[in-house]
C-alpha cells in the first residue's frame, strides 16, 4: 500500500489512478462507480489491503468477466501479491483480431466481362444461381439484393398487456372511464396480451468447406440483425464459437463484413460443431428461440457428440432450422456422419445456396411453414 | 462483526460476501448478487432478514412482470362497488368521485411498495434476469431514491430504505445503469473447507467423514464438464438424502441410489456413474 493515503485528497488521487487503470483494462470503472468506491472505503479500513481490494471489487465490477481483470489491475497497481485467486473457466468466447483478408480462398476472376442481368428473366435466373459459382458482378448484385431483404420474425405472445377491443377486463381503464362519466361503469375497457418477435439465434459455419457460402450467409445474418436488432444473435462456428452480433450491427453491410472478418479467429479451419453447440447451450440465447444452423455438416469432431447436443438443442429451442448449401443440388443426399446424426432433431432442413433459397429461409423465420 | 451474526444464523459467509453485506447495510445500497444457481444468493437475503429481525419481502421475477404486479395496483372491484354506491347516493361530481376512488384504502400494495412501507424490511428481488428490461427501468427508479410516485395519489417515500438484495443467475445481462446503483458481488461455489463446514452446520448428525466425502465428490463434479454442476443447495440435499439412508460415509451403492438429489440431468448422471464405475473397476 502506498503511504500517500494520509490525507483524503491524496487517497482520492491514488484511487482515481486505480480507476483509470481499471478502465484501461475494460472494467466499467466510471465516475459514478469511483464515487461509490471512495464511499465504501470510508466505511472500511483504507489502510488494509484486503479492505481496499473488496471495496474496489464490489463497486467497480459488473460481471464475472470483470473479476479476473480487476484482480490483475489490483496486483499491478498496488504492487502487492494477488489477494484472491483468479477464477477458472467461465469465459466462453475469446475474440481475437487477426488480419485475414475477407473472403480469402475465393478464386478471383481477373478479366471480368459478364454484365449484370439486364432483363427480368435474367434476374430471375440469378435468383436461383448457386452463389458459389457467380462472377464478381453477379455476386455484387446478389449482395445488393440481400441487403434489401427483410428478416421479419414470427410473433409470439408476451406476458405484457396492451389496450384492445377484445380480451379481458382492464380494471384500471374501466374505473378511470367510469369516473369521467360521473360514476357509471357502463363502458368496459379490455386488454389483451401484446406480442413480440420470436428471437432467432443463427450459427454460421465458417470452416474451410463452407468458404464459398460463408460470406453470403453472413450477409443474410446481417439482414436479420438489421431488421430485428433486439431479437437476433449470430455466432460463427469453426473450431470455436464466437459471438458476432455486435459486428453485424453496423448498418453498412460491407463495414459489418469487415468487422466480422476481423472478429472471427478461425476462418477456413475445421468444424467441431458438437463442441460448439455444447458451448451455445451453456448460454441463455437458444432457450425458446428459433435456432438456425448454417453448415454442410462436415463434422471433424465426434458425430455422437453432435447428435447428443442436437437432441438437447431440440428440447431447448422453439424450432431448429438447418441450412445446408448443398441441399440445393437435387443429387445431394445427407450422407456425412455429422449430418446424419443431426437430422433427426431438425425441424426444417433447407437449402441455402441461392438468393431464392435465402428468401424462402426468411419466409420460414417469418412464420411460414416449409413445404416438405 | 456481520460475518459472526450471519454465522449465528447458520449462514457461513466468506470474507467477500460478508464485506459486501456490511457495505450494503452501511451505505444503504442494494446488493447485486450474481452466481450460478444454488450458491446461496437467496439464502443470504433470508439470513439477513433473520439477523436484522426484519420481515423478508420477496419479489420473484418472471418475463412480463409489470408495474401492476411489482409496485401497486388499484382494487378495481372495490372501486366499482364504491362508484355504484355513490351513484345510488346521487353523487355525480367527477372531481369528488375521483378523490374518493383514488384513495390509499383502494390501493393494493405489491412487493416493492410494501417494502417501502414496511420498516425495517429486507427486500429480495429474486432472479431479475428472468424479468425483461422494461421492468429493470422502473426497478431502477424505485431503487435510486426509494420512492414510488402514484399519479392519482402522490409520492410514497420510505423513511428508512429497505435492505435490498437483487439476485441474478446471469441467463441474461442486466443493464449497467441498474448494476451501477448496486454493490456487485459474484458468488462462487464454496471451497472444500467451507463446504464441509456448511454441511456439518446445516445437517445435525452428519459425520465429518460423510461431509468430506460429499464435498470432495461435488468439487470433482464441478470440475467435470457437466450440463449443470451441483451448487451448495444440491450438495446439502444430497448429503441429507444420504443421511436419511443411514450413510456415515460415501458408500458407492447409496451414492448411486441418491444421485437424483444432486444431478438433475440424465446426461450428467450417466457421465458421473461412468466415471465412478471406471474408478471402482
Would you give an account of this structure?
The complex is a heterodimer of chains A (372) and B (281). Chain A has three domains: 3-78; 120-152 and 198-365, von Willebrand factor, type A domain (Rossmann fold), CATH 3.40.50; 158-196, no CATH class. Helix content of chain A is 42%, strand content 13%. Chain A is built from 13 helices and nine strands. In chain A, the strands form two sheets. Chain A has a six-stranded mixed beta sheet. In chain A, strand 5 and strand 6 form a beta hairpin. Chain A starts with 7 loop residues before the first helix and ends in a 7-residue tail after the last helix. Chain B has 281 residues and is an alpha/beta fold. Chain B has three domains: 2-67 and 110-186, Rossmann fold; 73-104; 192-280. Helices cover 52% and strands 14% of the residues of chain B. Chain B is built from 14 helices and nine strands. Chain B has helices spanning 2-8, 15-27, 41-52, 67-70, 76-89, 94-101, 111-117, 133-145, 176-181, 192-202, 208-223, 232-244, 252-257, 266-280, and strands at 31-34, 56-60, 72-74, 107-109, 122-126, 147-150, 154-157, 163-168, 183-186. In chain B, the strands form three sheets. A five-stranded parallel beta sheet of chain B has the order 2-5-8-1-9, sandwiched between helices. In chain B, strands 3-4 form a two-stranded antiparallel ribbon. In chain B, strands 6-7 form a two-stranded antiparallel ribbon. In chain B, a hairpin with a 3-residue loop joins strand 6 (147-150) and strand 7. Chain A: InterPro entries: UCP010256 (IPR011195), Uncharacterised_CoxE (IPR008912), vWFA_dom_sf (IPR036465). Chain A: This is VWA domain-containing protein. Chain A: Pfam families: VWA_CoxE.
Amino acid at each position: 500500500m502506498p503511504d500517500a493515503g494520509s490525507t483524503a485528497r491524496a487517497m482520492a488521487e491514488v484511487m482515481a489512478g486505480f480507476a483509470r487503470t481499471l478502465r484501461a483494462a475494460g472494467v466499467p470503472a466510471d465516475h459514478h462507480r469511483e464515487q461509490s468506491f471512495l464511499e465504501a472505503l470510508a466505511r472500511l479500513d483504507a489502510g488494509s489491503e484486503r479492505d481496499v481490494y473488496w471495496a474496489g471489487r464490489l463497486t467497480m465490477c459488473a460481471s464475472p468477466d470483470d473479476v479476473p481483470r480487476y484482480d490483475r489491475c489490483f496486483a499491478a497497481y498496488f504492487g502487492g501479491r494477488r489477494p484472491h485467486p483468479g477464477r477458472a473457466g467461465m469465459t466462453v468466447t475469446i475474440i481475437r483480431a487477426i488480419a485475414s483478408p475477407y473472403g480469402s480462398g475465393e478464386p478471383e476472376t481477373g478479366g471480368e466481362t459478364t454484365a449484370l442481368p439486364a432483363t427480368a428473366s435474367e434476374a430471375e435466373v440469378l435468383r436461383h444461381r448457386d452463389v458459389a459459382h457467380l462472377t464478381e458482378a453477379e455476386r455484387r448484385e446478389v449482395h445488393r439484393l440481400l441487403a434489401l431483404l427483410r428478416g421479419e420474425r414470427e410473433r409470439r405472445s408476451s406476458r405484457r398487456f396492451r389496450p384492445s377491443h377484445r380480451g379481458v377486463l382492464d380494471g384500471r381503464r374501466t374505473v378511470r372511464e367510469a369516473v369521467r362519466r360521473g360514476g357509471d361503469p357502463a363502458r368496459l375497457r379490455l386488454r389483451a396480451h401484446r406480442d413480440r418477435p420470436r428471437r432467432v439465434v443463427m450459427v454460421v459455419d465458417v470452416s474451410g468447406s463452407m468458404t464459398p457460402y460463408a460470406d453470403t450467409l453472413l450477409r443474410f445474418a446481417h439482414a436479420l440483425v438489421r431488421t430485428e436488432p433486439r431479437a437476433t444473435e449470430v455466432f460463427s462456428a469453426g473450431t470455436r464459437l464466437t459471438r458476432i452480433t455486435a459486428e453485424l450491427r453496423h448498418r453498412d453491410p460491407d463495414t459489418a463484413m469487415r468487422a466480422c472478418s476481423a472478429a472471427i479467429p478461425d476462418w477456413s479451419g475445421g468444424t467441431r460443431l458438437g463442441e460448439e453447440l455444447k458451448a451455445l447451450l451453456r448460454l441463455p440465447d437458444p432457450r425458446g428461440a428459433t435456432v438456425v444452423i448454417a453448415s454442410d455438416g462436415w463434422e471433424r469432431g465426434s458425430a455422437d457428440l453432435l447428435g447428443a447436443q442436437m437432441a438437447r438443442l431440440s428440447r431447448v429451442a422453439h424450432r431448429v432450422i438447418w441450412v445446408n448449401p448443398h441441399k440445393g443440388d437435387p443429387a445431394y443426399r445427407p450422407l456425412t456422419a455429422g449430418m446424419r446424426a443431426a437430422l433427426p432433431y431438425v425441424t426444417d432442413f433447407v437449402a441455402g445456396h441461392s438468393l431464392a433459397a435465402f428468401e424462402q429461409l426468411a419466409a420460414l423465420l417469418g412464420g411460414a411453414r416449409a413445404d416438405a | 462483526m456481520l460475518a459472526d451474526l450471519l454465522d449465528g444464523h447458520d449462514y457461513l459467509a466468506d470474507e467477500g460476501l460478508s464485506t459486501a453485506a456490511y457495505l450494503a447495510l452501511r451505505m444503504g445500497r442494494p446488493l447485486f448478487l450474481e452466481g450460478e444457481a444454488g450458491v446461496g444468493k437467496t439464502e443470504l437475503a433470508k439470513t439477513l432478514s433473520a439477523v436484522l429481525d426484519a420481515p423478508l419481502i420477496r419479489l420473484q421475477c418472471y418475463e412480463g412482470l409489470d408495474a401492476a404486479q411489482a409496485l401497486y395496483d388499484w382494487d378495481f372491484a372495490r372501486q366499482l362497488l364504491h362508484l355504484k354506491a355513490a351513484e345510488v347516493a346521487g353523487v355525480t361530481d367527477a372531481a369528488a368521485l375521483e378523490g374518493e376512488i383514488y384513495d390509499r384504502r383502494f390501493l393494493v400494495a405489491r412487493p416493492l411498495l410494501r417494502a417501502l412501507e414496511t420498516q425495517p424490511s429486507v427486500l429480495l428481488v429474486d432472479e431479475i434476469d428472468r424479468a425483461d428490461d422494461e421492468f429493470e427501468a422502473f426497478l431502477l427508479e424505485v431503487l435510486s431514491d426509494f420512492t414510488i410516485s402514484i399519479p392519482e395519489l402522490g409520492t410514497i417515500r420510505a423513511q428508512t430504505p429497505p435492505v435490498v438484495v437483487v439476485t441474478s443467475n446471469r441467463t441474461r445481462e442486466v443493464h449497467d445503469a441498474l448494476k451501477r446503483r448496486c454493490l456487485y458481488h459474484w458468488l462462487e461455489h464454496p471451497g472444500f473447507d467451507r463446504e464441509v463446514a456448511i454441511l456439518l452446520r446445516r445437517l445435525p448428525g452428519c459425520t465429518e467423514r460423510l461431509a468430506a466425502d460429499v464435498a470432495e465428490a461435488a468439487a470433482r463434479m464441478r470440475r467435470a464438464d457437466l450440463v449443470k454442476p451441483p451448487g451448495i443447495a444440491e450438495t446439502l440435499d444430497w448429503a441429507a438424502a444420504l443421511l436419511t439412508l443411514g450413510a456415515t460415509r460415501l458408500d458407492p451403492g447409496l451414492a448411486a441410489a441418491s444421485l437424483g438429489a444432486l444431478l438433475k440431468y440424465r446426461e450428467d448422471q450417466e457421465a458421473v456413474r461412468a466415471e465412478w464405475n471406471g474408478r471402482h473397476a
